[in-house]
Amino acid sequence: MKRNLDGKMLIGHFSREWQLYVLILFPMLFVFLFKFGPMFGLVIAFKDYKIARGFWGSQWAGFAVFKDIFRHRDFIPSLRNTLVLNLLDLIMGFPMPIVLALILNEIRVKWIKRVSQTLLYLPHFLSWVIIGGIALQLFSGTFGVVNNMIELFGKERVPFLTEKYHWLGSYVLIGVWQTMGWGTILYLAAISGVNPELYEAAIVDGAGRLRQCISITLPCIRSTIVILLIMNLGKIMGGSFERIYALQNAMVLDFSTTIPVLVYRWGIQSSNFSRATALGFFQSVIGLILVLISDKIAKKLGEDGLL
Predict the structure, then answer these.
(1) How is 159-216 classified by DSSP, letter by letter?
(2) Strand, helix or coil at 133?
(3) Rounded distance between C-alpha atoms, residue 185 and residue 125, angstroms
(4) At how many degrees (to 10) do helices 75-93 and 95-106 cross?
(5) What helix, strand, coil percent values describe the chain, rounded to 5?
(6) What domains are defined for the chain?
(7) What's the pTM value of the predicted model, to 2 decimals?
(8) Mean of the pLDDT values across residues 164-181?
């Protein structure tokens, strides 16, 4: 009897809310087709894959492909570069949206706040090809606007994009500029959920704006910060191929050869699909492990965590 009632209630719920389920159907199809569907191709990582023979006709290689990539001369440098670039991104880029969200939250003039948010969000919608072109026009050692201004003041031109250590700083700062505005959205949403009575009580106690941010706003959005930090730690072994490819050049290959770039070279340029798939699979597994470990640590420290 109870099962019949539950079934009728479920059918009634679907009949009332069917529009919402139709809407959610499209993103679910997207996830299954473009996220879960390609996982079938992971079998290539364990085969000596030949296009003419296909998935099933190619011979099994077991873990021989993984042994091959771990012994390859480009693997260790690309692993080092991936970790260095992503750790610098995390250190420099992760706090910036939090600081920016706190600043935007303190702006009381609505039109200034809206204009500021629009300008800060804009870089997120630019492709890395466009950003790479802008960076070249600004920081080129021969015709860049910034170097022209430096020379105008009697100083020597700075090789922002052609010397590896200068390129490293430029790469990180350009990435922070591109992502920090978009990253504020979640933090501003979390800040909007803070109970206003807490601020009123703090004002009565004589707390200024800075003390309110430190003692009320940051603790109230701590769970959001922890969740986003866990998600960012999972990207330590990843990185944006488009960003690297748009900003790299032959003079900075010591730093710009990362795992995504190596996957592109092996898979697209050299048609070694087994090796490229194995490297991408290794990258994803390490990312998953980092997410699980960081989530467990967060829970040990009393946070809700991600899972």
Answers:
(1) -TTTSHHHHHHHHHHHHHHHHHHHHHHHHHHHHHTS-HHHHHHHHHTT--HHHHIIII
(2) helix
(3) 14
(4) 20
(5) 80, 0, 20
(6) 1-62 (no CATH), 66-300 (1.10.3720.10)
(7) 0.85
(8) 92
